[in-house]
Write a structure and sequence with these properties.
CATH superfamily: Ribonuclease H-like superfamily/Ribonuclease H
CATH topology: Nucleotidyltransferase, domain 5
Helix content: 25-40%
InterPro entries: RNase_H, RNaseH-like_sf, RNaseH_domain, RNaseH_sf, RNaseHI
CATH architecture: 2-Layer Sandwich
Order of helices and strands: EEEHEHHEH
Number of strands: 5
Strand content: 25-35%
CATH class: Alpha Beta
Cofactor: Mg(2+)
Protein name: Ribonuclease H
Number of helices: 4
Structural class: alpha/beta
Number of domains: 1
Shape: globular
Organism: Mycolicibacterium confluentis
Largest sheet: 5 strands, mixed
Main location: cytoplasm
Distance between the termini: 38 Å
Radius of gyration: 15 Å
């Protein structure tokens, strides 16, 4: 596995929540930069869009690599680094014995992570980190494209 990590920043959101949503990702490897975005025109949630961004970014990688993945979502970071192991062990039920929300995306994210060596980092949203701000702008573009308008994510 190459020693130079792929640096990924992701973001996602809806307007309103729940409602139409968008996700964005910035992938950097050495001098290469790839920007990705997408969206859902129907009813989705902030959490689903926050999950879609790293899923799509990781699935876009063509070979196993070291990844430093930055998200401003504690839900995503804690979910994939802590909670998912218990959920899986408990048959995808929460500690309160309720079905895990977004189980389809959690399983897809697990599969995407399994191909790579992923280190997760939380960053404060809207704090001036250039690639996090760009991921936010890409998520807005994804939402706009999905609904064919000029919506802005908060």
């Amino acid at each position: 596995m190459e020693t130079h990590p792929v640096i990924i920043h992701t973001d996602g959101g809806c307007r309103p929540n729940p409602g139409p949503g968008g996700w964005g990702a910035v992938l950097r490897h050495r001098e290469h930069v790839r920007e990705m975005f997408g969206g859902e025109p129907g009813e989705t949630s902030n959490n689903r869009m926050e999950l879609m961004a790293p899923i799509m970014a990781l699935e876009a990688l063509t070979r196993p690599v070291l990844v430093h993945l930055h998200t401003d979502s504690t839900y995503v970071r804690n979910g994939i680094t802590k909670w998912v192991f218990g959920w899986e062990r408990n048959g995808w039920l929460t500690a309160a014995k309720q079905p895990v929300k977004n189980v389809d995306l959690w399983q897809r994210l697990q599969a995407a992570c399994a191909r790579h060596e992923v280190e997760w980092f939380w960053v404060k949203g809207h704090s001036g980190i250039a690639d996090n701000e760009l991921a936010d702008q890409l998520a807005t573009r994804g939402l706009q494209q999905a609904i064919g308008g000029s919506a802005v994510l908060g």
